[in-house]
Known about the structure:
single chain; Endonuclease I-creI; four-stranded antiparallel β-sheet; 21 helices
Amino acid sequence: MTLVLAHILSWLKTYEGNECELYRKVYNTCNSSNICHTALNLLQITPKCSLNYELRPSDCIKFIEQSIYCISKNDVDCTYKFLIELFNHKCHDGYAFSNDIVKKVKEITHYIWKNMDRDRRCDFLKYLREIGLSKWWIRDALGFSSNAMNKIINRCKTTWEVRMPQNEVAKYYDQVIKQKFNLNEIKECEGLLKYYGIDVGYMKGLGIEPCSYLNTEGLRWPYWAGLYITDLYAEFIEDRYKLSFDTSNGAGLFMAITVFSKLNDPSIVIRWHKNGAPNARYINGEEIRIKTITYIRDWPWLNKNQVINDYLQDLRRDELLEFLAGIIDGDGSITFTKGKPAVNIVAGLEKYYWLKKVKAIIAQKLNLECSITPKNFKITNELIYILSFKGSNIPSILEEIAPYLHHPIRRIRAELITAYLRHELNDEEFLRIYEQTKYKIKQPDIKRNSALNAAINASSMI
Length: 462
């Protein structure tokens, strides 16, 4: 597993967009943290786009409209002139502009290629290479297969620089940072918990390992099935599956990178939440979201309904516990109220169907008291449903589930409650740590919506 900080730095290094406000936000946040600042200098990461010039979609739309007018007149030279303007204004860049704009630029590029004199095509291809377009971008625009693209490159006697993928850059940075700063995954995890105000030293003194979630040795498909029907997305692209998990909080990011690393080396995408609008769900919500991505060859399910309608029915008890752990890591919470533990799963209207299915199977196979309660979330006026598990055997179920949890806070709570109910902790010891893991209600809390700050500052808290 690579350090979360290495992924932030690799994003800064490999970023190819021109959304300077976003880049400035990430770069300046890193620059304000002592270890991240030192790493920027050590790894020679400098801003990749102008921090004083903001690109405007209106320019792209204007040049697209002028290009389309030229195409309607069958005027190739006129179209070519405005295509160059589109490239100069970075309208081809999917990081900076919408898919609709980029798609139009590709269509105009394809028109130019088809209608260009054959003896000019090599010069045009070299121009596309010089402005930094990837082979994949050009293949998609011109409709070439990989073999066809390579043949044209060879015929034009040009080469394409092979760029190191972000996940490979992260692996290299990971080695450098660990050696330079004497960091490792456990220290970074402990830094995250300290950033959250959790007394790591006190926990260890109580015999509770605060970073046990890092152990992924027993990670199996049932866990992935549970995570999949909550916030994990799987998409088949060409010959492999793209898995992604999007979050705005640090604990979710650390969890995603931990479990994704079990399948393949992950990478991240940093973006604005809803085009830069702060998250309305919480007061002063962080406007940054971070998506963890990895690619694998095999994925067991075609869609989420297959998990609910087919896969879930045949799970053994131990597999069902792993499945439930995946759901809790994705959309769940573990609480202790009035001397009783409870597990809650929160879902919106679009997930109500699977919530009912899960309730029925969990109640039957694990002998738990289950209920679904509708609730109006006042801040967003959103109707949500809460699936609650309660009952006399919840403590034993929680103890069985705990080893499968990989969300830092939820794993701590599960182990803390289990130890308390086994009378290994007294009231004072239990409450001291449990209170530190609680989320503030109706006010800002760095345990929510602070993925960027948590990822960068965790390493500085050791």
